[in-house]
Amino acid sequence: MTADEFQALTGAAPERMAELERFLVLLTEGNDVMNLVGPDTIPDFWNRHAWDSAQLLDKAGFARTWADLGAGAGFPGLILAILSKGRPDAHVWLIDSLQKRCRFLQTVVDELSLPATVVWGRAEEQAIKVDVVTARAVAPMEKLLGYAQPYLSRGAQGLFLKGEKAEQELKDAAKAWHVDAELTVSRSDPRGRIVTVRSLKSRGPQQRG
Predict the structure, then answer these.
(1) Is the pTM of this model over 0.70?
(2) Is-contact 97 70, C-beta < 8 A?
(3) Binding positions for S-adenosyl-L-methionine (predicted)?
(4) Of 18, 89, 150, 194, which is the most exposed, with the fewest CB atoms less than 10 Å away?
(5) 6 labeled part of a ligand binding site
(6) What structural domains and CATH numbers belong to the chain?
(7) Residue 5 known to bind ligand
(8) CA geometry: angle at 135 spanning 129 and 141, to 5°?
């Protein structure tokens, strides 16, 4: 996918495209000094990272506020923040437990003046209320649901980007959780899945990793 194809799919304004281009430069530079994403994925930035993240906006047109757990290199959180820029009340919380990743996220947020807050800490310990809680490549569903449960209990919907093992991960998670979830095929990769979680309840005491 090219930048032009991404713009055609998303309708992103020229200003947003320029910010995405700058983010790509910062990601490439940051990846030279820390492991943010696989180096071989950067040439496929527009599909593998940008479109993979941006498709969530179509799944949650109602959403103004997002929490991205284990935000890492900023997928999907930074993409959502860039594309939401200028929307009334739009805000993204980028939460990560590693300080060096938070420094990278803050650099992008500051340079692009994004409607986002970087939080250094454990995802499940934050008292943040949002419309949607999201994550990509953070943990298997059973553990991820533990991280997301506080946000879901405060009324958030869950939208999680997962790989081809998503269905099995949900089955495994059902041992610990009563979960009302739906799987849809990712528009960036037919092997991927978007897991929409509407409600969640623990089956009993369990570890929160």
Answers:
(1) yes
(2) yes
(3) 70, 75, 123-124, 136
(4) 89
(5) no
(6) 3-202 (3.40.50.150)
(7) no
(8) 105
